[in-house]
Write a structure and sequence with these properties.
By secondary structure, the chain is mainly alpha-helical. The chain is built from 26 helices and no strands.
Length: about 475
C-alpha cells in the first residue's frame, strides 16, 4: 500500500510542478497580481459575509504566495497531491484492493482539467475540502471491515493497470491542458503583459511580429507600445496593420484588462495621475475589489508624484498582507523610468476626447516628449490627414534638423506634391523622392503592377494612403 501511494505521488507531483513552473509561469504571475489579501478586520468581515466565502478568503490568502514563481507551482502541486491521496484513501477503504488504486487517477485528471482556469483557487479548495471530508467519512464507516485481500486477481488488477494506466491517464490529461488552444493563448497574453510590466520591449517585438499583430488587436497594442518605447514607431508602425489612431490604447472601454493596458500606456508617457486613475479602475473590477498589481502601481505613482500622505495610507493597507509585510518590492525613484523629459505638468483630464486631441493638448502643455510627438504625428498619418500633419510637423521639427524617420520622410514627399518648397526645408533624401516616383508608376500601371505594390510597399505610408481604406 505504501509503495503504491509513493509511486502515485512521485508520478504526479513532479509532473504537475514542472508544468506550472515551466509551461505556465506567467499564469502564476497574473493570478498573484489579480488577487488581494489583508488581515484588516473590515476586509475579513466583507470576504466572510456568506458561509461559502471562506473558500474565497482562503484562496486569496494562498494567492499571496504566487508572488514567487516556485511558491505558486508548489501550491498548485499541493492541491493535486491532496486530491490524489484523498482519492486513494476512499478507494482503498471501499475496494480493499491496492491493485485497483489506479482508479484514483481518474478524479485527478478531471481535477487537473479545470485547474488552469481556476484563477481564484475556489474550485481547487472546494475539491480538496470535499475529497478530504469524503475520505475521513469513508474511513470512519469502514473501520470494522475485513483486512486486505492481496491474492485477489482479475484483469483490472493486473500490473498493466496498476502502473501503466496511471502514467497514460496523467500524460493524456497534461498533454490536453498544455496543448489546449485557450490555455496557450492565455499564457501568451499573460507573458506579453508581464514583459510590458517589466519594460522588456525588445522581447515583445520579437514575440509580436507584424504578421502576429495583424491577427490580434490585443497583441497589436503591446507591439505599438514597444515600438514607441524603443523609438521605432515612426519607422515601423504601418507594418503592424494599424487601422485607426485608437489602436494605440483602449479608448473609453471599461473593463479590467483594458485598464491594465492603459496603466502601462500612461506609465510610459509619464502621466502618473492617469496611471493612478486606471490602476484604481482595474483594482475595483478585480474579484476582491482591489488587487496587488493595482496597489503596486498606485504606490509607485504616488511616490513619484511626492504624495507622501497618500503613499503612507496605501503602504499601511498593503502591509497588512501577511506576505507583503516582508516581501514588499522596492519602488523605483522618479528618475529611474523617465526619459525624454517626461513630466507631470498637465492638469486636464485625459481620455475624455479622441486620442489625437489628447496628444495635441499634451503638446500644447509643452510636454517635451518624443513619444507624444510620435503618437501625434503617426496618428495624423494613420488618419491620412496630410494637411494637418504638415502643419504640426512644421511646429515640431526645425528645417535641416537632420535625418528624419522613414514615415515622416514619406509623408513630406507626398506633401511636396502640393507644397514643392517642403523638400528644400527638410532633409528628405533624393532616394526617397525617386522611390515615390517608382511607387506612382506602379500605382498608375496595370493590375500586375498594382499587385507588385503590395509586395514592395506594403509597410509604407504610401501604400496605406493610396491603397488602403480606413476601418
Amino acid at each position: 500500500m505504501k509503495k503504491i501511494l509513493l509511486f502515485h505521488l512521485l508520478l504526479a507531483c513532479p509532473v504537475v510542478f514542472v508544468v506550472w513552473y515551466v509551461v505556465f509561469p506567467n499564469t502564476i504571475w497574473f493570478m498573484e497580481g489579480n488577487a488581494f489579501f489583508s488581515t484588516a478586520p473590515d476586509f475579513t468581515a466583507l470576504q466572510l459575509s456568506l458561509p461559502a466565502d471562506w473558500m474565497k478568503y482562503a484562496g486569496v490568502y494562498l494567492l499571496q504566495f504566487f508572488y514567487f514563481r516556485m511558491g505558486g507551482a508548489l501550491i498548485q502541486t499541493l492541491f493535486v497531491a491532496i486530491v490524489l491521496l484523498s482519492s486513494d484513501c476512499v478507494l482503498a477503504c471501499l475496494l480493499r484492493n491496492k491493485r485497483l488504486l489506479w482508479l484514483s487517477f481518474i478524479p485527478v485528471v478531471w481535477f487537473i482539467s479545470g485547474q488552469f482556469a481556476d484563477m481564484t483557487l475556489v474550485r481547487s479548495i472546494g475539491w480538496c475540502t470535499v475529497l478530504v471530508t469524503l475520505a475521513v467519512l469513508v474511513w470512519l464507516f469502514t473501520l470494522k471491515r475485513g483486512k486486505w485481500n492481496p491474492s485477489e486477481r482479475g484483469f483490472l488488477c493486473s500490473p498493466f493497470f496498476s502502473y501503466l494506466v496511471p502514467c497514460l491517464l496523467l500524460a493524456g490529461g497534461i498533454f490536453y491542458q498544455v496543448t489546449d488552444k485557450e490555455q496557450k493563448e492565455a499564457e501568451e497574453i499573460f507573458r506579453i503583459d508581464h514583459w510590458a510590466d517589466d519594460k522588456n520591449w525588445n522581447a515583445i517585438l520579437q514575440e509580436v511580429t507584424p504578421e502576429v499583430a495583424r491577427q490580434s488587436q490585443l497583441k497589436l497594442r503591446w507591439a505599438l507600445l514597444a515600438l514607441s518605447e524603443t523609438g521605432r514607431l515612426a519607422e515601423k508602425v504601418f507594418a503592424y496593420g494599424v487601422s485607426d489612431p485608437s489602436c494605440f490604447y483602449y479608448e473609453r472601454q471599461d473593463q479590467q484588462f483594458y485598464h491594465c493596458f492603459n496603466m502601462q500606456f500612461y506609465d510610459a508617457l509619464g502621466l502618473d495621475n492617469e496611471v493612478i486613475h486606471h490602476a484604481f479602475q482595474a483594482g475595483i473590477e478585480a474579484p476582491n475589489g482591489m488587487n496587488f498589481r493595482s496597489m503596486r502601481r498606485i504606490m509607485a505613482a504616488n511616490r513619484r508624484l511626492g504624495n507622501d500622505r497618500i503613499l503612507a495610507k496605501y503602504t499601511s493597507v498593503i502591509s497588512r498582507s501577511s506576505c507583503y509585510n516582508r516581501w514588499k518590492e522596492p519602488i523605483s525613484e522618479p528618475t529611474a523610468d523617465r526619459a525624454d523629459g517626461d513630466q507631470n505638468i498637465c492638469s486636464f483630464f485625459i481620455g475624455a476626447r479622441p486620442f489625437l486631441s489628447d496628444m495635441a493638448r499634451l503638446m500644447d502643455c509643452h510636454l517635451d516628449s518624443r513619444k507624444v510627438r510620435d503618437y501625434l504625428l503617426c496618428g495624423l498619418l494613420i488618419s491620412k490627414d496630410i494637411e494637418k500633419f504638415y502643419q504640426v510637423f512644421g511646429m515640431i521639427y526645425q528645417p535641416s534638423q537632420g535625418q528624419l524617420p522613414r514615415y515622416y520622410e514619406e509623408a513630406l514627399v507626398v506633401a511636396a506634391t502640393k507644397y514643392p518648397d517642403v523638400l528644400q526645408y527638410y532633409a528628405v533624401s533624393r532616394e526617397k523622392v525617386t522611390e515615390f516616383k517608382a511607387f506612382q508608376t506602379l500605382l498608375n500601371g496595370s493590375m500586375a503592377d498594382k499587385r507588385m505594390l503590395e509586395v514592395k510597399y506594403r509597410d509604407s505610408f504610401w501604400f496605406w494612403l493610396y491603397c488602403m481604406q480606413k476601418v
